Amino acid sequence: MARNHDFGWRDRAIALASVGAAAISRLVFTPGDAVDPQPLQMQVLVAVALQDSLGADPPRRTGTNWLSLALGLGRDVVEQVVRRLASANLVQYSWDAVDEIRWELDEDEDEDEVDGELPIALTDLGMVAVDRWLSRTRLRFHGWPPERADVDDAVG
């Protein structure tokens, strides 16, 4: 039988945070009912809803390339999920940006690269799904974050 492992303070904090993140992720991304998107689909919807891409230039440029990086998933997996979400009318592509993206990337760029930068936005139905998810998820956080607008501001 293995002896107790003597974690250092940093390793212990990392291990506890990882186990906690896994547990809360399972809890918050489990569908509440049959109409809710599956966990990976919901993660993509929430990421698109946040539009929180530091690499997004111009703002609100959340394509499958960024989603792949943000969620730690292969681009092909993200593209498949986004296609399913688009088929369910939960997200839509913004085709208005194609010319701008081609110009930014270079006109000779591979069409797949252009498609990966194509902005994705929630539809009204997608926003309803995210709002429903957030209503359920909010209950898991019991008063966190505190009642301060800048609580998540690392520099302020």
SS elements, strand count: 2
CATH architecture of one domain: Orthogonal Bundle
Separation of the first and last Cα atoms: 49 Å
Q: Return the CATH topology of one domain.
A: Arc Repressor Mutant, subunit A
Mean pLDDT across residues: 80
Q: Portion of residues in helices?
A: 40-55%
Structural class: mainly alpha
Number of helices: 7
Beta-strand percentage range: under 5%
At the fourth level of CATH, the homologous superfamily of one domain is Winged helix-like DNA-binding domain superfamily/Winged helix DNA-binding domain
- Main β-sheet: number of strands, strand sense, barrel status? 2 strands, antiparallel
Instruction: Specify Rg, calculated over alpha carbons.
Output: 19 Å
Shape: globular
Strand order of the largest sheet: 1-2
The H/E string reads HHHHEHHEH
**What is the CATH C-level name of one domain?**
Mainly Alpha
Uncertain residue segments: none
